[in-house]
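so the lab meeting is tmrw and i was supposed to have these ready like two days ago... anyway. pasting both below. for each one the top line is the aa sequence and the line under it is the structure tokens. i havent really looked at them closely yet so no promises
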Amino acid sequence: MPDTFEWPVRVYYEDTDVGGVVYYANYLRFMERARTEWLRSQGFEQDELIRNQGVLFAVAAAEIRYRAPARFNDLLHVTARISERGRSRMHFEQKIYRPADGLHLTDGLIKVACLDAESFRPRAIPEEMERILSA
């Protein structure tokens, strides 16, 4: 498993405010996409985890720091790296940057909990996933 996963995101008009700058909450959406694609790259689909393993992943906390704005039509790269992992949680360090000029735009620390899909109570990360993450 590579240490840092990277996913490209294009800024669409709908992602911006009237000034053509990415609306602050949309950076969290971009980070969510990168984590979803990271999970997919490891061989896991979220709907299948719910259906077959009875687990889902939910954001428990998010810290975000804005350094510079992204604008309409920018191509961004969003990274995701597990910085800490416990029995039923993963912490992701995420960055968003613009490769065209190398400008680092945003930092995020996203804390994700593994939950039982029925009760929404914490549950251990599935063994198969744990095996892959530990490799």
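ok protien two:
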Amino acid sequence: MALTDEMIQLLSAGVAHQVGGCTNDGRPVVCRGLAAQHEAGRLLVIISAESGFEVLDAIRQNGRIAVNVTLPENYRSLSFIGDDAVVRGSGAAWRPLVNERHRAFSDQLLRYGIPPEYTNAWYSADDEHLVALRFTPTQARNQTPGPGAGNAVKLIPIEFEK
């Protein structure tokens, strides 16, 4: 399934990212995500291996993942869920995307008097700790506070070449 244009735009609008997994023995794990983007029906999420080591371990165990993005200006929140997540690639190649998403998130917070220094620690992971996770979203849920919270949001069917 692919994301809608509106979902794709949300990913670059300055959202906060939370990434979760669950170990085979049922223990939930979560970490802060640094960036996300849509790539040909799959979601790419960047995390720090240093702070996200438990999430990485859980994803390597079973591929289950949940990514929540929230836009500070209006709390618009979506969760994307998948079961085929893989750990793919690490390093400095992800720095431009992380920097771009950090700028957008900092700009969101600056509107409310929160200085960029507040988020610098989150996004300052060393390049060698930047790790990409890729997965196919099978479900999306509206997590925006209000009467529609938790409701499923339709994804676009997509066929991959075999």
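from a quick look at the 2nd one: Residues 91 and 128 are 4 Å apart (CA to CA). Strands lie at 16-22, 28-39, 42-48, 65-71, 76-82, 86-90, 130-135, 139-142. will dig more after coffe
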